[in-house]
Write a structure and sequence with these properties.
Keywords: Membrane, Signal, Transmembrane, Transmembrane helix. There is one protein chain. The chain starts with a helix and ends in a 22-residue tail after the last helix. With 404 residues, it is mainly alpha-helical. The chain is built from 14 helices and two strands, in the order ααααααβααααβαααα. Helix 10 runs antiparallel to helix 12 and helix 13 runs antiparallel to helix 14. A two-stranded parallel sheet has the order 1-2.
Length: 404
């Protein structure tokens, strides 16, 4: 509710300046960047502050799963760059990934009496058997849990490239950017489209960092654990054949990444877990709810923040309508696809026609969604060429902090 109130206030504030040229002219006169009166900022300050925040929200905030031990430095770099690209194009997918791992780690912690850090380490493929295969299935854990309990939480955290202080500072950085935006709205100073887009990343970054607060950062090598003497790995008794994902379509791979279900994945056919993998726990309803809250709910909020610039002054009408259509689609599509899935499951389950319609709508969204995201990214920078004078006026913090 607080989020939508903020969006309404920001839209209303920007709408006042666009809908009334006299008010815009007066605002530019009253809040012009006169450094003898006001604290000013330059275009470089705006761009640099936003880019630094986006980098912190996409590169620094990523807590990847443990990679294949044989990957070289260049392959590891490309792996993280791909994840960064996914975060920029579809950050709600990463939020859903983080939410699934959080729920799974919390459940493992309670079920097997270990710390949340142990739970996250299981989810990220951090524990491997003596044969080098990840212990990454729920039915594997009983065979290895006695050894896992002997591993200290401090030993796992020692592999992390980030500690509690650094993660706390990173969260504070995102909250600080949000605070700056709220202060500008409070003082009726306009936000640039780049700042609105960065605000969306900052809000989602805070959520991601909180979900992954107990997850080790950038672990490169797993920890080998032995089976209990009285237990055997249940997967050893199955007829496991190497995975063959070459037959999977692009839609299948995208669905696996979004939904988090890697049906073809087998620990005994790999030396690492998939990039967006988490251990499945609980019922299908729990899995569906986590995906709804993480992917669809957050995706709608991400688009909704962009909608806050609905009535902001744009250099041209074409740019204004491209921004409006793109942000509205990104805000509405996650909700529509969820409602369609619920309706199909409720009224026409296992129906070929329903499945075809739902699949077509999914394909349409997967194709169009990144295009609209790219439009918003491009417009965030092109609109900087024509900013009102009041955009260069900095926040007067003495209004909130006396004697500053």
């Amino acid at each position: 509710m607080l989020f939508w109130i903020f969006v309404f206030l920001l839209t209303k504030q920007s709408g006042l300046t666009q809908g009334h040229p006299d008010l815009l002219s007066r605002a530019a006169t009253e809040a012009s960047c006169d450094c003898t009166i006001n604290s000013c900022r330059t275009l470089f300050d705006i761009v640099w502050g936003c880019l630094a925040t986006i980098f912190a929200c996409t590169w620094v905030a990523l807590h990847q799963n443990v990679p294949d031990p044989d990957l070289g430095h260049f392959a590891l770099l490309m792996r993280k760059l791909r994840m960064m690209l996914v975060t920029i194009i579809a950050p709600e997918v990463i939020v859903g990934f983080a939410a699934r791992q959080f729920v799974s780690a919390r459940w493992i912690s309670k079920e097997f009496n270990v710390s949340k850090t142990h739970g996250f380490f299981c989810n990220m493929g951090g524990f491997v058997s003596e044969e080098g295969y990840p212990v990454s299935k729920m039915k594997q854990l009983p065979a290895y849990i006695s050894t896992i309990r002997k591993i200290k939480k401090a030993d796992i955290e020692d592999k992390s490239k980030g500690d509690t202080l650094s993660k706390g500072v990173a969260i504070a950085q995102g909250l600080w950017f949000v605070t700056q935006c709220l202060a500008r709205v409070s003082q009726r100073l306009p936000l640039t489209e780049l700042e609105v887009a960065t605000l969306a990343f900052a809000v989602l970054s805070v959520v991601i960092r909180l979900l992954w607060f107990h997850k080790p950062l950038d672990v490169q090598q797993p920890i080998v654990v032995a089976r209990s003497e009285v237990e055997i790995d249940p997967l050893q008794e199955e007829d496991i054949t190497p995975m063959n994902n070459s037959s999977d379509t692009l839609l299948d791979k995208l669905a696996s990444a979004i939904d988090g279900k890697y049906k073809e994945y087998s620990p005994l056919a790999s030396t690492s877990v998939p990039s967006l993998y988490s251990i499945e726990i609980g019922t299908e309803d729990i899995h569906w709810f986590v995906n709804f809250a993480g992917v669809c709910g957050v995706g709608s909020i991400f688009g909704g923040i962009h909608c806050a610039a609905w009535n902001a002054p744009f250099p041209s009408m074409a740019e204004m309508w491209i921004w409006r259509i793109s942000s509205a689609f990104i805000a509405a599509y996650p909700v529509l696809i969820t409602l369609l899935a619920v309706a199909a499951d409720e009224w026409a389950p296992n129906n070929d026609i329903t499945d075809a319609v739902f699949g077509s709508f999914m394909v349409f969204g997967i194709v169009v969604y990144p295009i609209f995201r790219l439009f918003l990214i491009i417009l965030s920078f092109t609109t900087l060429r024509s900013l009102p004078p009041s955009a260069f006026v900095d926040v007067n913090w003495s209004n909130y902090i006396p004697h500053l």
